[in-house]
């Protein structure tokens, strides 16, 4: 009985802490539903008693192209990341060529390079090639965040695949490529999901590359859509917050659908199971 | 026990004698594996060369020349050697940016780690709803940074922000969180701490789960109270996980541009400028892009990040050997 009472107390504390932590998220929702006239009310309205959907009408009026661009960039980034990192992870984990230690180290170092530095390098290159303000240019730049992570995660996971399994496929006459495609990849389904999830989320959330390489284009992603709103009409915070809510949808969906993979991706490499 | 490569080769040879007749000798097979490995790595190697090494090389080149937007297109920028670096280091912004970077990074990761660890220990006591609430804590980390940063700037708005409105109820006058030089840096630090808590919580929680429950029982039998159990058992055993959490936090926080840029653009004036924000502002933040000093600042930032990384690797190496 004592333990029961004590754990009840902990649940209440947990609820309070979560409420404090998520208050900004609640506030974003609240402001997105507040009427423009009430935006500067003093004190601010704590609950959207008279909700308005002006903000959301604006989002779907103005931001649909930006949302489409973001989805396109996200999916492109997932495809590019998987295409490069899955075979590389397989090679590093199962074929272990000479110099793989050096390569893993380089990938670790690559993750330390600030995006703003990469953005300048890409800008200098894209300006010559005429790749500024293109969707594929942004896909390539965004993928530089995900590829080193992807290779390291695939290497860590694929090292755990029993060598017997890979060798058995070889004995059956499968080529290395077939072994990879028909044996290793299906077994690695979870890590494929984790890498895809993060590649999509990072590309979707990216602001630095979008605001440097894609700022004058017709096809801007949703993060720049929000940024343009902030710059233009500081009075319409309900529209800004409505766009922010819509831009948060993928994160919310992924959290509900794939929480296991999110936690797996965060802890990959940091904690040995 | 996992079989070695040689062992597996032997098994393969024994199991399929019919095919070994035409199979190449071991040495050639080894080299065929090497070719296969190279083929599988080729896309990555090409990718790293074109999309990592080349932009970095261009960045070094930018920092050694005087690139104006026109010189960018024409490609005839004047070579300056290290003059850009000298200008940057002697600039009055440099000391401030360095101090702010140190403050922003160290305060952020220390607070994120402390709060993350406290929450991880709290959630480690399983209670009703603990798994759901722990999942909810991930939300701030998954939101696009521009979403969180713009929400925070509206919450901290001087006239209409909820934070000032609550403080007013307690009789505290208006604080210009983002527009006063005294508080701008601290405001972005608070927002950044909030952003980093989920990451610390998840990693440290996973670390806690790997500590055997027997140890706690033994400590409890020896009469250790909860506080002593934390400092004598949990904290020392969590050291490797703590180290990697802090390192990842350090590397991540050094790079932060979005949060600061969206909330204060490094201002007012230079009050909340960090090296990363300075670099971004010089290159992309004004109507007059100044790529060469921006690249110099960026390269200095890389050097700092790498130095931090190597110090960590060295410490880890020494710890493993002892």
From TrEMBL, chain A:
Recorded GO cellular component terms are: plasma membrane
List each copy of the ABC transmembrane type-1 domain by range. 67-258
Report the SUPFAM superfamilies cross-referenced here.
Answer: MetI-like (SSF161098)
Q: Does the record's keyword annotation contain Hydrolase?
A: no
This protein's membrane topology, according to the annotation, is: Multi-pass membrane protein
Which Pfam families does the annotation name? BPD_transp_1
The record's keywords, sorted A to Z, are: Cell membrane, Membrane, Transmembrane, Transmembrane helix, Transport
Span-the-membrane segments of this chain are 12-29, 71-93, 105-126, 138-161, 182-204, 237-258
Q: Where in the cell is it found?
A: Cell membrane
Name of the protein described by the UniProt record: Carbohydrate ABC transporter permease
From TrEMBL, chain B:
> What InterPro entries does the record point to?
MetI-like, MetI-like_sf
- Subcellular location(s) per record: Cell membrane
Please state every residue range assigned to the domain named ABC transmembrane type-1: 98-312
Membrane topology according to the record: Multi-pass membrane protein
Main localization (coarse): membrane
Give the UniProt family note: Belongs to the binding-protein-dependent transport system permease family.
The protein's name is Sugar ABC transporter permease
In its UniProt entry, the species of origin is given as: Jiangella ureilytica
């Amino acid at each position: 009985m004592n333990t029961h009472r004590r754990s009840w107390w902990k649940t209440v504390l947990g609820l309070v802490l979560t409420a404090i932590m998520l208050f900004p998220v609640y506030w974003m929702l609240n402001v997105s539903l507040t009427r423009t006239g009430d935006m500067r009310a003093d004190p601010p309205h704590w609950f959207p008693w008279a909700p308005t959907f002006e903000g959301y009408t604006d989002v779907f009026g103005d931001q649909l192209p930006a949302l489409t661009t973001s989805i396109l960039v996200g999916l492109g980034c997932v495809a590019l990341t998987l295409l490069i990192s899955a075979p590389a992870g397989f090679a590093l984990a199962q074929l272990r060529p000479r110099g793989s230690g050096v390569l893993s180290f380089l990938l670790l170092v690559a993750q330390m390079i600030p995006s703003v530095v990469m953005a300048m390098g890409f800008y200098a290159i894209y300006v010559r090639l005429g790749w500024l303000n293109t969707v594929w240019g942004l896909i390539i730049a965004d993928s530089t965040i995900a590829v080193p992570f992807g290779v390291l995660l695939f290497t860590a996971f694929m090292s755990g695949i029993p060598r017997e399994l890979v060798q058995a496929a070889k004995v059956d006459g499968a080529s290395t490529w077939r072994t990879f495609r028909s044996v290793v990849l299906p077994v690695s389904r979870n890590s494929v999901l984790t890498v895809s999830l993060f590649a999509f989320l990072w590309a979707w959330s990216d602001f630095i590359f979008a605001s440097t390489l894609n700022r004058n284009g017709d096809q801007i992603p949703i993060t720049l859509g929000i940024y343009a709103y902030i710059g233009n009409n500081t009075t319409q915070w309900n529209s800004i917050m409505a766009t922010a809510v819509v831009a948060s949808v993928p994160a919310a969906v992924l959290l509900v659908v794939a929480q296991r993979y999110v936690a797996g991706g965060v802890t990959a490499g940091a904690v040995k199971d | 026990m996992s079989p070695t490569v040689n062992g597996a080769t032997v098994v393969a040879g024994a199991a399929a004698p019919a095919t070994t007749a035409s199979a190449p000798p071991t040495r050639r097979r080894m080299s065929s594996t090497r070719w296969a490995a190279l083929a599988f790595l080729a896309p990555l190697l090409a990718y790293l060369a074109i999309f990592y090494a080349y932009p970095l090389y261009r960045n070094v080149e930018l920092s050694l020349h005087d690139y104006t937007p026109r010189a960018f297109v024409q490609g005839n920028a004047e070579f300056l050697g290290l003059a850009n670096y000298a200008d940057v280091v002697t600039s009055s912004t440099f000391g401030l940016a360095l101090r702010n970077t140190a403050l922003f990074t160290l305060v952020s990761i220390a607070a994120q780690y402390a709060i993350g660890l406290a929450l991880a220990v709290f959630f480690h006591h399983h209670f009703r709803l603990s798994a759901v609430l722990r999942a909810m804590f991930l939300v701030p980390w998954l939101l696009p940074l521009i979403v969180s940063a713009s929400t925070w700037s509206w919450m901290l708005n001087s006239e209409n922000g909820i934070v000032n409105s609550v403080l007013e109820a307690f009789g505290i006058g208006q604080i210009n969180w983002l527009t006063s030089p005294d508080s701008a840096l601290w405001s972005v630090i608070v927002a950044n701490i909030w952003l980093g808590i989920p990451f610390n919580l998840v990693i440290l929680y996973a670390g806690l789960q790997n500590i055997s429950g027997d140890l706690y029982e033994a400590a409890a039998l020896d009469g250790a109270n909860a506080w002593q159990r934390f400092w004598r058992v949990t904290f020392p055993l969590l050291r490797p996980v703590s180290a990697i959490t802090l390192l990842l936090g350090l590397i991540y926080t050094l790079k932060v541009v979005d949060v600061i840029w969206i909330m204060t653009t490094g201002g007012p004036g230079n009050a909340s400028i960090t090296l990363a924000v300075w670099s971004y502002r010089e290159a992309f933040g004004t109507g007059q892009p100044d790529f060469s000093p921006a690249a110099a600042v960026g390269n200095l930032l890389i050097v700092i990040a790498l130095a931090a990384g190597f110090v960590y690797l060295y410490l880890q190496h020494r710890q493993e050997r002892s």
